[in-house]
Amino acid sequence: MDERALYDLACVERRCPRCDGRTRQIDKDTSSGREMREYGCEACGWNHGFDLGVALWKMMSDAKNRAPGK
Ligand SMILES: [Zn+2]
Question: How far is the CA of 35 from the centre of ligand 1 (A)?
Fold first, then answer.
């Protein structure tokens, strides 16, 4: 995971960078094999998507495929 994205996410999870209002997670999608999350602010309409890297299920599935003697 990108450290910069992680830092941004930690901030945005708590408050909106534009109006300082409360944010909430509006979307989460791991279907592409990457964990994508979107956060938004109801007060000003700000929203931002985060790419959090390889999704957990994808990591597990890759690890299983690499296991010897399958
Ligand atoms: Zn806002």
Answer: 23
Q: How many domains does the chain have?
A: 1
Which residues form the domain of 45?
Answer: 3-66
pTM: 0.76
Residue 21 C-alpha to ligand 1 middle, in angstroms? 5
**42 or 3: which carries more pLDDT confidence?**
42
Instruction: Describe the strand order of the beta sheet including 34-41 as a list of residue ranges.
Output: 23-29, 34-41, 47-54
49 and 42 Cβ atoms separated by less than 8 Å: no
Between the CA of 22 and the centroid of ligand 1 the distance, in Å, is: 7
